[in-house]
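Entry 14: structure prediction run for Ribosomal RNA small subunit methyltransferase H. Input pasted below.
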Amino acid sequence: MTAAPHIPVLLDEVIEGLAIVPGETHIDATFGAGGYTRAMLAAGASVVAFDRDPDAIREGQGLVDASDGRLRLVESPFSALDIAGPVDGVVMDIGVSSMQLDRAERGFSFQADGPLDMRMSQSGMSAADFLNEADEGAIADVLFRYGEEPRSRRVASAIVAARPIARTGELAAVVRRALGYRPHDKKDPATRTFQAIRIHLNSELDELAEGLAAAERALKPGGRLAVVTFHSLEDRMVKRFLRERSGGEPAGSRHRPAATAPRAPSFEPPARAVRPGEAELARNPRARSATLRVARRTTAAAWSANGGQ
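Run finished. Output tokens:
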């Protein structure tokens, strides 16, 4: 196989969690630069890999050619991954990929100036479109909900006052002025704003919810699900999904009435969450917020969209 341009986070732990047996079929729900896929192929699996980014699909064709027919790339959001089922394993690496972050022209990062884009699929509304057209309240809501920005209204007001904004460097400067920034600060205050806008534009939390349900439908009995997340919003969703589907959700409360009938768990209780060790953090500072959760599918039917069976 050709050399991988990026080493994915928690790679050894993901492959261990997938417990690949040669000849099995696995899904890489977030192909990106192909790091997990390469390791899955090396372990003897056939792989169906999804990505909604046309750059990832195009640049992955060399790996397809080198795979002896064991890799198929699908240009699609991973919420549709169950079209490839039934399979023995699914891995999801949630969020923006390194290849997207590292290319200034994609507009995901303020580390280098570029057009304010942030579209994973390279279609639809861009970040500049949203920030220049949405009203102040809508922008503040997005920053608070998806970036957990405590001063979202101040940032939204500053963005509206500075419009039009077309570049990542411009947006970062606006946020820094609004919140205060010193170069030696541990975390750039623009980080939360960029995260929030990206998640909103790409409907990432909706996609995650639908993708988890699709993986549940696609996995064979005994199939393994491995999900790597990078911030608390994502991790809470995955943790809640696996707790509920493994029978660990409380029977009911005043906010959520008890189910009228017991539901057979579709997953075994998940393994303990895994986080990067010091050696990996030294190699890759981007791994510092990563969390891996792994669970195994039971023989029970997949739950319906509303939680029933």
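Notes: The chain has a mean pLDDT of 90. Will compare against the previous run tomorrow.
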